[in-house]
Acyl-CoA dehydrogenase NM domain-like protein (Auriscalpium vulgare), 529 residues
Amino acid sequence: MTSLKQFTREEVAQHNKDGDLWIIIDAKVYNLSRFADLHPGGKTVLFGDDIPGQDATEAFYGLHRHEVLERAQYARLQVGTVRGEQPAIVGRVNGALSKVPYAEPTWLSDGYHSPYYTENHKRFQRAVREFVDEHVYADAQAREADGKRPSQSVFDKMGEVNFHAMRLGPGKHLKGLTLMNGIVEPEQFDYFHELIITQEIVRTGNRGYGDGMLGGMVIGLPPVLNFGSNELKAEAGQISHPYRIVPDIFAGKKFICLAISEAHAGSDVSGIQTTAEKSPDGKEWIINGEKKWITNGHTTFFFNSFTTGCKTEDGFTVILVPRGEGVSTKPIKTSYSATAGTAYVTFENVRVPVENTLGSEGGGIFVILSNFNHERWVMCCSSARSQRLVIEEVLKWIQQRKAFGRPLSSQAVIRNKVAQMIAKAESLQAWLENMTYQMNNMTYKQQSSKLAGQLAFLKMYSTQCAQDTARDAVQIFGGRGITQTGMGRFIEHYHRTIPFDALLGGAEDVLGDLGVRQAMRAMPKNARL
Ligand code: HEM
Protein backbone atom coordinates (compact mmCIF):
# COMPACT_ATOMS: atom_id res chain seq x y z
CA MET A 1 0.00 0.00 0.00
CA THR A 2 2.85 2.42 0.74
CA SER A 3 3.76 2.62 -2.96
CA LEU A 4 0.23 3.69 -3.88
CA LYS A 5 -0.21 7.33 -4.83
CA GLN A 6 -2.50 9.74 -3.04
CA PHE A 7 -5.08 11.81 -4.94
CA THR A 8 -7.43 14.58 -3.97
CA ARG A 9 -11.12 14.01 -4.63
CA GLU A 10 -10.91 16.79 -7.26
CA GLU A 11 -8.15 14.93 -9.12
CA VAL A 12 -10.20 11.71 -9.13
CA ALA A 13 -13.23 13.61 -10.44
CA GLN A 14 -11.32 14.48 -13.67
CA HIS A 15 -11.43 10.80 -14.72
CA ASN A 16 -15.11 10.54 -15.49
CA LYS A 17 -15.59 9.24 -19.02
CA ASP A 18 -15.46 6.14 -21.17
CA GLY A 19 -11.80 5.13 -21.54
CA ASP A 20 -10.77 7.21 -18.53
CA LEU A 21 -12.87 6.07 -15.59
CA TRP A 22 -11.87 6.25 -11.94
CA ILE A 23 -14.00 5.79 -8.84
CA ILE A 24 -13.54 5.89 -5.06
CA ILE A 25 -14.57 3.01 -2.82
CA ASP A 26 -13.88 3.42 0.91
CA ALA A 27 -11.10 5.98 0.43
CA LYS A 28 -9.40 3.77 -2.19
CA VAL A 29 -9.08 4.96 -5.77
CA TYR A 30 -9.79 2.46 -8.57
CA ASN A 31 -9.01 2.86 -12.26
CA LEU A 32 -11.79 1.07 -14.14
CA SER A 33 -10.90 2.45 -17.59
CA ARG A 34 -10.10 -0.92 -19.14
CA PHE A 35 -12.10 -3.04 -16.68
CA ALA A 36 -15.38 -1.30 -17.59
CA ASP A 37 -15.85 -3.50 -20.67
CA LEU A 38 -15.18 -6.63 -18.60
CA HIS A 39 -17.28 -5.70 -15.56
CA PRO A 40 -19.55 -8.69 -14.73
CA GLY A 41 -22.35 -6.27 -13.82
CA GLY A 42 -22.15 -4.54 -17.22
CA LYS A 43 -20.62 -1.30 -18.45
CA THR A 44 -23.57 1.09 -18.35
CA VAL A 45 -24.02 0.82 -14.57
CA LEU A 46 -20.52 2.24 -14.13
CA PHE A 47 -21.68 5.43 -15.84
CA GLY A 48 -24.81 5.85 -13.70
CA ASP A 49 -25.54 8.97 -11.62
CA ASP A 50 -22.77 9.94 -9.21
CA ILE A 51 -20.45 7.07 -10.20
CA PRO A 52 -17.76 8.22 -12.71
CA GLY A 53 -15.02 10.07 -10.85
CA GLN A 54 -17.11 10.03 -7.66
CA ASP A 55 -17.32 8.20 -4.36
CA ALA A 56 -19.19 4.98 -5.23
CA THR A 57 -18.82 3.32 -1.82
CA GLU A 58 -22.51 3.09 -1.04
CA ALA A 59 -23.47 2.01 -4.55
CA PHE A 60 -20.71 -0.62 -4.52
CA TYR A 61 -21.67 -2.18 -1.18
CA GLY A 62 -25.31 -2.31 -2.18
CA LEU A 63 -24.32 -4.67 -5.00
CA HIS A 64 -21.09 -6.49 -4.05
CA ARG A 65 -19.57 -8.44 -1.18
CA HIS A 66 -16.40 -6.90 0.23
CA GLU A 67 -14.48 -10.02 -0.83
CA VAL A 68 -14.77 -8.87 -4.48
CA LEU A 69 -12.21 -6.15 -3.77
CA GLU A 70 -9.89 -8.67 -2.13
CA ARG A 71 -9.67 -10.90 -5.20
CA ALA A 72 -6.26 -10.43 -6.83
CA GLN A 73 -7.64 -9.58 -10.28
CA TYR A 74 -9.74 -6.73 -8.83
CA ALA A 75 -7.40 -5.59 -6.05
CA ARG A 76 -4.92 -4.62 -8.73
CA LEU A 77 -7.38 -2.06 -10.13
CA GLN A 78 -6.58 0.11 -7.12
CA VAL A 79 -4.23 2.91 -8.13
CA GLY A 80 -4.15 4.94 -4.96
CA THR A 81 -5.97 6.35 -1.96
CA VAL A 82 -7.74 9.62 -1.25
CA ARG A 83 -5.36 12.10 0.35
CA GLY A 84 -5.88 12.42 4.08
CA GLU A 85 -8.45 9.58 4.29
CA GLN A 86 -8.19 6.05 5.64
CA PRO A 87 -10.18 3.00 4.48
CA ALA A 88 -12.64 2.07 7.24
CA ILE A 89 -14.42 -1.06 5.99
CA VAL A 90 -13.10 -4.36 7.29
CA GLY A 91 -13.62 -7.67 5.56
CA ARG A 92 -12.84 -11.10 6.94
CA VAL A 93 -9.88 -11.06 9.32
CA ASN A 94 -8.32 -14.48 9.85
CA GLY A 95 -8.73 -15.74 13.39
CA ALA A 96 -10.78 -12.76 14.58
CA LEU A 97 -14.08 -12.84 16.45
CA SER A 98 -16.94 -11.11 14.67
CA LYS A 99 -18.14 -7.81 16.10
CA VAL A 100 -21.58 -8.24 14.53
CA PRO A 101 -24.15 -8.79 17.32
CA TYR A 102 -25.24 -12.44 17.67
CA ALA A 103 -22.65 -13.58 15.12
CA GLU A 104 -20.81 -15.31 17.97
CA PRO A 105 -22.34 -17.36 20.80
CA THR A 106 -22.44 -15.43 24.09
CA TRP A 107 -19.41 -17.24 25.51
CA LEU A 108 -17.34 -15.61 22.72
CA SER A 109 -19.00 -12.20 22.96
CA ASP A 110 -17.56 -9.26 24.89
CA GLY A 111 -18.84 -8.88 28.43
CA TYR A 112 -20.81 -12.16 28.63
CA HIS A 113 -20.15 -15.08 30.97
CA SER A 114 -20.59 -18.84 30.79
CA PRO A 115 -20.43 -21.60 33.39
CA TYR A 116 -19.28 -24.15 30.81
CA TYR A 117 -16.09 -23.00 29.12
CA THR A 118 -12.66 -22.97 30.78
CA GLU A 119 -9.59 -20.97 29.85
CA ASN A 120 -8.41 -24.08 28.00
CA HIS A 121 -11.57 -24.12 25.87
CA LYS A 122 -11.01 -20.44 25.05
CA ARG A 123 -7.41 -21.00 24.04
CA PHE A 124 -8.43 -24.01 22.03
CA GLN A 125 -11.17 -22.03 20.23
CA ARG A 126 -8.69 -19.32 19.22
CA ALA A 127 -6.26 -21.88 17.84
CA VAL A 128 -8.96 -23.78 15.95
CA ARG A 129 -10.38 -20.59 14.45
CA GLU A 130 -6.96 -19.45 13.27
CA PHE A 131 -6.31 -22.90 11.84
CA VAL A 132 -9.61 -23.11 9.96
CA ASP A 133 -9.35 -19.55 8.64
CA GLU A 134 -5.78 -20.07 7.50
CA HIS A 135 -5.89 -23.60 6.11
CA VAL A 136 -9.52 -24.49 5.37
CA TYR A 137 -11.62 -21.42 4.51
CA ALA A 138 -10.26 -20.73 1.02
CA ASP A 139 -10.38 -24.40 0.05
CA ALA A 140 -14.01 -24.60 1.22
CA GLN A 141 -14.99 -21.73 -1.10
CA ALA A 142 -13.07 -23.16 -4.06
CA ARG A 143 -14.20 -26.79 -3.70
CA GLU A 144 -17.81 -25.90 -3.11
CA ALA A 145 -17.65 -23.94 -6.37
CA ASP A 146 -16.01 -26.71 -8.44
CA GLY A 147 -17.76 -29.59 -6.65
CA LYS A 148 -14.54 -31.51 -5.99
CA ARG A 149 -13.57 -33.17 -2.74
CA PRO A 150 -11.67 -31.11 -0.14
CA SER A 151 -8.02 -30.85 -1.19
CA GLN A 152 -5.64 -33.53 0.02
CA SER A 153 -3.30 -30.79 1.29
CA VAL A 154 -6.05 -29.70 3.71
CA PHE A 155 -6.63 -33.28 4.92
CA ASP A 156 -2.86 -33.57 5.46
CA LYS A 157 -2.62 -30.29 7.36
CA MET A 158 -5.51 -31.28 9.60
CA GLY A 159 -3.92 -34.66 10.18
CA GLU A 160 -0.76 -32.94 11.46
CA VAL A 161 -2.63 -31.46 14.45
CA ASN A 162 -4.87 -34.53 14.87
CA PHE A 163 -7.95 -32.62 13.85
CA HIS A 164 -9.62 -35.72 12.39
CA ALA A 165 -9.12 -37.69 15.59
CA MET A 166 -10.60 -34.89 17.68
CA ARG A 167 -13.74 -34.87 15.57
CA LEU A 168 -14.65 -38.22 17.08
CA GLY A 169 -14.88 -36.65 20.53
CA PRO A 170 -13.23 -37.59 23.80
CA GLY A 171 -12.09 -41.18 24.24
CA LYS A 172 -9.35 -43.79 24.19
CA HIS A 173 -8.64 -43.11 20.52
CA LEU A 174 -6.93 -39.83 21.53
CA LYS A 175 -4.45 -41.49 23.88
CA GLY A 176 -0.87 -40.59 23.05
CA LEU A 177 -1.79 -38.05 20.37
CA THR A 178 -0.62 -34.42 20.36
CA LEU A 179 -3.77 -32.38 19.94
CA MET A 180 -3.69 -28.96 18.30
CA ASN A 181 0.04 -28.64 18.93
CA GLY A 182 -0.40 -29.65 22.56
CA ILE A 183 -2.96 -27.00 23.59
CA VAL A 184 -5.19 -29.68 25.08
CA GLU A 185 -4.12 -32.96 26.65
CA PRO A 186 -5.93 -36.07 25.38
CA GLU A 187 -7.32 -36.74 28.89
CA GLN A 188 -8.51 -33.14 29.13
CA PHE A 189 -10.33 -33.15 25.79
CA ASP A 190 -14.10 -33.09 26.41
CA TYR A 191 -17.32 -32.61 24.51
CA PHE A 192 -16.98 -28.81 24.66
CA HIS A 193 -13.68 -29.11 22.77
CA GLU A 194 -15.46 -31.21 20.19
CA LEU A 195 -18.35 -28.73 20.01
CA ILE A 196 -15.80 -25.99 19.32
CA ILE A 197 -14.19 -27.98 16.50
CA THR A 198 -17.54 -28.72 14.85
CA GLN A 199 -18.80 -25.17 15.18
CA GLU A 200 -15.60 -23.62 13.86
CA ILE A 201 -15.61 -25.77 10.70
CA VAL A 202 -19.18 -24.65 10.02
CA ARG A 203 -17.97 -21.05 9.81
CA THR A 204 -16.56 -21.75 6.36
CA GLY A 205 -20.19 -21.29 5.27
CA ASN A 206 -20.25 -24.29 2.98
CA ARG A 207 -22.43 -27.04 4.37
CA GLY A 208 -21.52 -29.57 1.66
CA TYR A 209 -17.80 -29.05 2.12
CA GLY A 210 -18.32 -29.62 5.85
CA ASP A 211 -19.56 -33.11 5.04
CA GLY A 212 -16.93 -33.62 2.37
CA MET A 213 -14.49 -32.85 5.17
CA LEU A 214 -14.83 -36.42 6.46
CA GLY A 215 -18.44 -36.36 7.56
CA GLY A 216 -18.37 -40.04 6.59
CA MET A 217 -15.58 -40.68 9.07
CA VAL A 218 -17.48 -39.05 11.94
CA ILE A 219 -20.27 -41.60 11.52
CA GLY A 220 -18.34 -44.48 9.95
CA LEU A 221 -15.31 -44.80 12.21
CA PRO A 222 -16.89 -45.06 15.70
CA PRO A 223 -18.24 -48.57 14.98
CA VAL A 224 -14.67 -49.63 14.11
CA LEU A 225 -13.23 -48.00 17.24
CA ASN A 226 -15.93 -49.38 19.53
CA PHE A 227 -16.55 -52.78 18.00
CA GLY A 228 -13.55 -53.63 15.79
CA SER A 229 -10.76 -55.97 16.87
CA ASN A 230 -7.42 -54.49 17.91
CA GLU A 231 -5.88 -56.14 14.88
CA LEU A 232 -8.32 -54.28 12.65
CA LYS A 233 -7.77 -50.90 14.28
CA ALA A 234 -4.04 -51.21 14.93
CA GLU A 235 -2.01 -49.00 17.18
CA ALA A 236 -0.34 -45.86 15.87
CA GLY A 237 2.82 -46.61 13.94
CA GLN A 238 1.70 -49.95 12.49
CA ILE A 239 0.17 -48.62 9.37
CA SER A 240 1.35 -50.99 6.67
CA HIS A 241 -1.31 -53.70 7.01
CA PRO A 242 -4.22 -52.95 4.63
CA TYR A 243 -6.86 -53.34 7.33
CA ARG A 244 -5.03 -51.42 10.02
CA ILE A 245 -6.74 -48.23 9.20
CA VAL A 246 -7.17 -45.96 12.18
CA PRO A 247 -3.76 -44.21 12.26
CA ASP A 248 -3.95 -43.59 8.51
CA ILE A 249 -7.47 -42.21 8.81
CA PHE A 250 -6.37 -39.86 11.58
CA ALA A 251 -3.50 -38.72 9.34
CA GLY A 252 -5.93 -37.96 6.49
CA LYS A 253 -4.32 -40.61 4.26
CA LYS A 254 -7.14 -43.14 4.29
CA PHE A 255 -10.87 -42.61 4.44
CA ILE A 256 -13.95 -44.32 5.72
CA CYS A 257 -17.67 -43.90 5.38
CA LEU A 258 -20.86 -45.46 6.68
CA ALA A 259 -22.74 -47.59 4.16
CA ILE A 260 -26.14 -48.47 5.56
CA SER A 261 -28.97 -46.93 3.50
CA GLU A 262 -30.26 -48.52 0.31
CA ALA A 263 -32.96 -47.82 -2.23
CA HIS A 264 -35.26 -50.02 -0.12
CA ALA A 265 -34.08 -49.05 3.35
CA GLY A 266 -33.45 -45.73 5.07
CA SER A 267 -34.68 -45.38 8.65
CA ASP A 268 -36.10 -48.88 8.20
CA VAL A 269 -32.84 -50.81 8.59
CA SER A 270 -34.65 -54.13 8.50
CA GLY A 271 -35.36 -53.54 4.80
CA ILE A 272 -31.66 -53.85 3.89
CA GLN A 273 -31.02 -56.22 0.99
CA THR A 274 -27.21 -56.27 0.79
CA THR A 275 -26.18 -59.79 1.76
CA ALA A 276 -23.07 -61.20 3.41
CA GLU A 277 -22.63 -64.97 3.17
CA LYS A 278 -19.81 -67.03 4.60
CA SER A 279 -17.38 -68.72 2.22
CA PRO A 280 -17.40 -72.57 2.38
CA ASP A 281 -14.30 -72.55 4.66
CA GLY A 282 -15.95 -69.97 6.95
CA LYS A 283 -12.99 -67.61 6.71
CA GLU A 284 -14.50 -64.89 4.55
CA TRP A 285 -17.67 -62.92 4.01
CA ILE A 286 -18.89 -62.70 0.42
CA ILE A 287 -20.85 -59.47 0.04
CA ASN A 288 -23.35 -58.49 -2.66
CA GLY A 289 -25.63 -55.49 -2.88
CA GLU A 290 -26.00 -51.80 -3.58
CA LYS A 291 -25.91 -48.91 -1.12
CA LYS A 292 -27.36 -45.47 -1.84
CA TRP A 293 -26.78 -41.90 -0.57
CA ILE A 294 -23.43 -42.78 1.01
CA THR A 295 -21.75 -39.55 2.18
CA ASN A 296 -18.09 -39.41 1.07
CA GLY A 297 -18.62 -42.69 -0.80
CA HIS A 298 -17.31 -41.28 -4.03
CA THR A 299 -15.01 -38.37 -3.21
CA THR A 300 -12.92 -40.29 -0.72
CA PHE A 301 -12.14 -42.88 -3.35
CA PHE A 302 -8.50 -43.37 -2.43
CA PHE A 303 -7.90 -46.20 0.02
CA ASN A 304 -11.30 -45.99 1.60
CA SER A 305 -13.34 -48.44 3.62
CA PHE A 306 -17.04 -48.84 4.12
CA THR A 307 -18.65 -49.62 7.45
CA THR A 308 -21.36 -51.69 5.85
CA GLY A 309 -24.70 -52.96 7.06
CA CYS A 310 -25.47 -56.45 5.70
CA LYS A 311 -28.21 -59.04 5.92
CA THR A 312 -26.65 -62.24 7.29
CA GLU A 313 -27.94 -65.62 8.41
CA ASP A 314 -28.30 -64.31 11.97
CA GLY A 315 -30.00 -61.03 11.07
CA PHE A 316 -28.23 -57.71 10.55
CA THR A 317 -24.44 -57.53 10.79
CA VAL A 318 -21.99 -54.66 10.32
CA ILE A 319 -18.80 -55.47 8.39
CA LEU A 320 -15.82 -53.31 7.46
CA VAL A 321 -15.28 -53.56 3.71
CA PRO A 322 -12.09 -52.05 2.27
CA ARG A 323 -12.21 -50.78 -1.29
CA GLY A 324 -10.94 -53.58 -3.50
CA GLU A 325 -12.03 -56.06 -6.12
CA GLY A 326 -15.79 -56.00 -6.62
CA VAL A 327 -16.33 -52.59 -4.95
CA SER A 328 -17.35 -49.69 -7.16
CA THR A 329 -18.80 -46.24 -6.54
CA LYS A 330 -20.51 -43.64 -8.64
CA PRO A 331 -21.70 -40.17 -7.67
CA ILE A 332 -25.38 -39.36 -7.14
CA LYS A 333 -26.52 -35.94 -8.30
CA THR A 334 -28.46 -34.34 -5.47
CA SER A 335 -29.72 -30.85 -4.71
CA TYR A 336 -27.18 -30.94 -1.89
CA SER A 337 -23.49 -30.56 -2.77
CA ALA A 338 -21.11 -32.52 -4.99
CA THR A 339 -18.31 -31.82 -2.49
CA ALA A 340 -19.91 -34.23 -0.02
CA GLY A 341 -19.33 -37.09 -2.48
CA THR A 342 -22.78 -38.67 -2.08
CA ALA A 343 -22.58 -42.02 -3.87
CA TYR A 344 -23.95 -45.34 -4.91
CA VAL A 345 -21.68 -48.09 -3.64
CA THR A 346 -21.91 -51.47 -5.34
CA PHE A 347 -20.55 -54.70 -3.86
CA GLU A 348 -20.20 -57.61 -6.28
CA ASN A 349 -18.87 -60.83 -4.74
CA VAL A 350 -16.60 -58.79 -2.48
CA ARG A 351 -14.57 -61.05 -0.17
CA VAL A 352 -13.42 -59.80 3.23
CA PRO A 353 -12.02 -61.75 6.23
CA VAL A 354 -14.59 -62.59 8.91
CA GLU A 355 -12.30 -60.72 11.33
CA ASN A 356 -13.71 -57.55 9.73
CA THR A 357 -17.02 -58.10 11.51
CA LEU A 358 -17.85 -55.18 13.82
CA GLY A 359 -19.63 -56.39 16.96
CA SER A 360 -21.31 -59.73 16.96
CA GLU A 361 -22.85 -61.52 14.00
CA GLY A 362 -26.52 -60.54 14.01
CA GLY A 363 -25.81 -57.69 16.46
CA GLY A 364 -25.57 -54.93 13.87
CA ILE A 365 -28.52 -52.92 15.13
CA PHE A 366 -26.76 -52.35 18.44
CA VAL A 367 -23.59 -51.24 16.60
CA ILE A 368 -25.54 -48.68 14.58
CA LEU A 369 -27.82 -47.47 17.37
CA SER A 370 -24.90 -46.90 19.73
CA ASN A 371 -23.70 -44.17 17.39
CA PHE A 372 -26.91 -42.22 17.04
CA ASN A 373 -26.77 -39.90 20.06
CA HIS A 374 -23.32 -38.63 19.20
CA GLU A 375 -24.13 -38.27 15.52
CA ARG A 376 -27.27 -36.24 16.30
CA TRP A 377 -25.46 -34.07 18.80
CA VAL A 378 -22.75 -33.28 16.21
CA MET A 379 -25.49 -32.25 13.79
CA CYS A 380 -27.03 -29.98 16.43
CA CYS A 381 -23.63 -28.32 17.00
CA SER A 382 -23.29 -27.57 13.35
CA SER A 383 -26.92 -26.52 12.84
CA ALA A 384 -26.88 -24.05 15.75
CA ARG A 385 -23.68 -22.47 14.44
CA SER A 386 -24.69 -22.27 10.80
CA GLN A 387 -27.88 -20.43 11.78
CA ARG A 388 -25.68 -17.81 13.44
CA LEU A 389 -23.74 -17.43 10.22
CA VAL A 390 -26.99 -16.71 8.40
CA ILE A 391 -27.83 -14.09 11.04
CA GLU A 392 -24.48 -12.39 10.49
CA GLU A 393 -25.04 -12.32 6.72
CA VAL A 394 -28.57 -10.99 7.18
CA LEU A 395 -27.58 -8.26 9.65
CA LYS A 396 -24.85 -7.01 7.31
CA TRP A 397 -27.18 -7.12 4.32
CA ILE A 398 -30.04 -5.20 5.97
CA GLN A 399 -27.60 -2.53 7.06
CA GLN A 400 -25.90 -2.04 3.68
CA ARG A 401 -28.76 -2.70 1.29
CA LYS A 402 -31.14 0.15 0.56
CA ALA A 403 -34.67 -0.23 -0.78
CA PHE A 404 -37.26 2.54 -1.16
CA GLY A 405 -34.46 4.96 -0.24
CA ARG A 406 -33.78 3.48 3.18
CA PRO A 407 -31.75 0.57 4.58
CA LEU A 408 -33.72 -2.68 4.75
CA SER A 409 -33.32 -2.56 8.53
CA SER A 410 -35.77 0.34 8.64
CA GLN A 411 -38.61 -2.03 7.68
CA ALA A 412 -40.43 -3.49 10.70
CA VAL A 413 -41.35 -6.62 8.77
CA ILE A 414 -37.67 -7.34 8.12
CA ARG A 415 -36.73 -6.69 11.76
CA ASN A 416 -39.42 -9.11 12.86
CA LYS A 417 -37.99 -11.90 10.72
CA VAL A 418 -34.50 -11.24 12.10
CA ALA A 419 -35.85 -11.30 15.66
CA GLN A 420 -37.22 -14.80 15.08
CA MET A 421 -33.87 -15.98 13.71
CA ILE A 422 -31.92 -14.63 16.65
CA ALA A 423 -34.31 -16.06 19.25
CA LYS A 424 -34.01 -19.49 17.63
CA ALA A 425 -30.21 -19.47 17.37
CA GLU A 426 -29.78 -18.31 20.96
CA SER A 427 -32.16 -20.90 22.40
CA LEU A 428 -30.59 -23.70 20.36
CA GLN A 429 -27.08 -22.87 21.57
CA ALA A 430 -28.23 -22.67 25.20
CA TRP A 431 -29.97 -26.07 25.00
CA LEU A 432 -27.01 -27.55 23.16
CA GLU A 433 -24.56 -26.36 25.81
CA ASN A 434 -26.75 -27.86 28.52
CA MET A 435 -26.74 -31.21 26.66
CA THR A 436 -22.98 -31.01 26.15
CA TYR A 437 -22.50 -30.44 29.87
CA GLN A 438 -24.66 -33.49 30.60
CA MET A 439 -22.59 -35.59 28.18
CA ASN A 440 -19.41 -34.52 29.96
CA ASN A 441 -20.86 -35.68 33.26
CA MET A 442 -22.64 -38.89 32.31
CA THR A 443 -21.37 -42.36 31.59
CA TYR A 444 -22.05 -43.70 28.13
CA LYS A 445 -24.89 -45.79 29.57
CA GLN A 446 -26.47 -42.81 31.32
CA GLN A 447 -26.23 -40.82 28.11
CA SER A 448 -28.06 -43.56 26.24
CA SER A 449 -30.94 -43.69 28.69
CA LYS A 450 -31.21 -40.02 29.64
CA LEU A 451 -30.19 -38.10 26.53
CA ALA A 452 -31.64 -40.04 23.60
CA GLY A 453 -35.00 -38.26 23.91
CA GLN A 454 -33.47 -34.84 24.64
CA LEU A 455 -31.10 -35.07 21.67
CA ALA A 456 -33.88 -36.30 19.41
CA PHE A 457 -35.92 -33.21 20.33
CA LEU A 458 -32.92 -30.92 20.00
CA LYS A 459 -32.10 -32.26 16.54
CA MET A 460 -35.75 -32.01 15.48
CA TYR A 461 -35.99 -28.43 16.76
CA SER A 462 -32.60 -27.43 15.27
CA THR A 463 -33.59 -28.44 11.77
CA GLN A 464 -37.08 -26.94 12.06
CA CYS A 465 -35.51 -23.63 13.11
CA ALA A 466 -32.89 -23.96 10.36
CA GLN A 467 -35.54 -24.31 7.69
CA ASP A 468 -37.52 -21.33 9.01
CA THR A 469 -34.35 -19.26 9.12
CA ALA A 470 -33.33 -20.32 5.61
CA ARG A 471 -36.73 -19.42 4.20
CA ASP A 472 -36.80 -16.02 5.93
CA ALA A 473 -33.23 -15.25 4.86
CA VAL A 474 -34.14 -15.91 1.22
CA GLN A 475 -37.11 -13.56 1.54
CA ILE A 476 -34.83 -10.86 2.96
CA PHE A 477 -32.14 -11.35 0.29
CA GLY A 478 -34.69 -11.61 -2.54
CA GLY A 479 -33.29 -12.82 -5.88
CA ARG A 480 -29.78 -12.87 -4.44
CA GLY A 481 -30.92 -15.52 -1.97
CA ILE A 482 -31.33 -17.92 -4.87
CA THR A 483 -28.16 -16.90 -6.76
CA GLN A 484 -25.01 -18.98 -6.35
CA THR A 485 -22.59 -16.07 -6.73
CA GLY A 486 -22.61 -12.57 -5.35
CA MET A 487 -24.08 -11.09 -2.20
CA GLY A 488 -26.44 -13.90 -1.28
CA ARG A 489 -24.13 -16.82 -2.07
CA PHE A 490 -24.06 -18.19 1.48
CA ILE A 491 -27.82 -17.81 1.81
CA GLU A 492 -28.42 -19.64 -1.48
CA HIS A 493 -26.17 -22.47 -0.39
CA TYR A 494 -27.72 -22.67 3.04
CA HIS A 495 -31.27 -22.69 1.74
CA ARG A 496 -30.47 -25.34 -0.90
CA THR A 497 -28.61 -27.69 1.40
CA ILE A 498 -30.53 -27.36 4.66
CA PRO A 499 -33.27 -29.94 3.94
CA PHE A 500 -30.50 -32.52 4.09
CA ASP A 501 -29.98 -31.88 7.82
CA ALA A 502 -33.64 -32.56 8.47
CA LEU A 503 -33.33 -36.05 6.94
CA LEU A 504 -29.93 -37.38 8.00
CA GLY A 505 -29.63 -38.90 11.46
CA GLY A 506 -33.39 -39.33 11.79
CA ALA A 507 -36.16 -37.41 10.06
CA GLU A 508 -37.82 -34.68 12.16
CA ASP A 509 -41.12 -36.49 12.73
CA VAL A 510 -39.41 -39.76 13.63
CA LEU A 511 -37.21 -37.99 16.19
CA GLY A 512 -40.06 -36.10 17.82
CA ASP A 513 -42.00 -39.31 18.10
CA LEU A 514 -39.02 -41.13 19.60
CA GLY A 515 -38.64 -38.46 22.28
CA VAL A 516 -42.29 -38.53 23.31
CA ARG A 517 -42.39 -42.33 23.36
CA GLN A 518 -39.36 -42.32 25.65
CA ALA A 519 -41.02 -39.72 27.90
CA MET A 520 -44.17 -41.85 28.12
CA ARG A 521 -42.09 -44.85 29.09
CA ALA A 522 -40.56 -42.82 31.93
CA MET A 523 -43.93 -41.55 33.20
CA PRO A 524 -44.64 -42.46 36.83
CA LYS A 525 -47.54 -44.89 36.60
CA ASN A 526 -49.29 -43.24 39.53
CA ALA A 527 -49.15 -39.69 38.11
CA ARG A 528 -52.58 -38.10 37.88
CA LEU A 529 -53.94 -34.60 37.16
C1 HEM B 1 -13.65 -1.90 -8.25
C2 HEM B 1 -14.86 -1.78 -8.77
C3 HEM B 1 -15.76 -2.92 -9.12
C4 HEM B 1 -15.48 -4.23 -9.25
C5 HEM B 1 -14.14 -4.95 -9.08
C6 HEM B 1 -16.71 -4.91 -9.57
C7 HEM B 1 -16.86 -6.27 -9.77
C8 HEM B 1 -18.05 -6.93 -9.91
C9 HEM B 1 -18.23 -8.34 -9.88
C10 HEM B 1 -17.12 -9.38 -9.68
C11 HEM B 1 -19.54 -8.58 -10.03
C12 HEM B 1 -20.21 -9.96 -10.06
C13 HEM B 1 -20.70 -10.26 -8.68
C14 HEM B 1 -21.19 -11.65 -8.57
O1 HEM B 1 -20.37 -12.54 -8.32
O2 HEM B 1 -22.39 -11.85 -8.75
C15 HEM B 1 -20.19 -7.34 -10.17
C16 HEM B 1 -21.56 -7.18 -10.34
C17 HEM B 1 -22.18 -5.95 -10.43
N1 HEM B 1 -21.61 -4.72 -10.32
FE1 HEM B 1 -19.66 -4.34 -10.02
N2 HEM B 1 -17.71 -3.99 -9.65
C18 HEM B 1 -17.16 -2.76 -9.36
C19 HEM B 1 -17.83 -1.54 -9.29
C20 HEM B 1 -19.15 -1.38 -9.54
C21 HEM B 1 -19.84 -0.10 -9.49
C22 HEM B 1 -19.20 1.22 -9.11
C23 HEM B 1 -21.13 -0.34 -9.82
C24 HEM B 1 -22.23 0.65 -9.97
C25 HEM B 1 -23.00 1.06 -9.06
C26 HEM B 1 -21.27 -1.75 -10.07
C27 HEM B 1 -22.44 -2.40 -10.39
C28 HEM B 1 -22.59 -3.76 -10.46
C29 HEM B 1 -23.85 -4.42 -10.68
C30 HEM B 1 -25.21 -3.76 -10.91
C31 HEM B 1 -23.60 -5.79 -10.65
C32 HEM B 1 -24.61 -6.91 -10.77
C33 HEM B 1 -24.98 -7.28 -9.32
C34 HEM B 1 -26.09 -8.30 -9.18
O3 HEM B 1 -26.67 -8.70 -10.18
O4 HEM B 1 -26.35 -8.69 -8.05
N3 HEM B 1 -20.04 -2.34 -9.90
N4 HEM B 1 -19.28 -6.32 -10.09
In short: The chain has four domains: 5-82, 95-213, 255-362, 368-521.
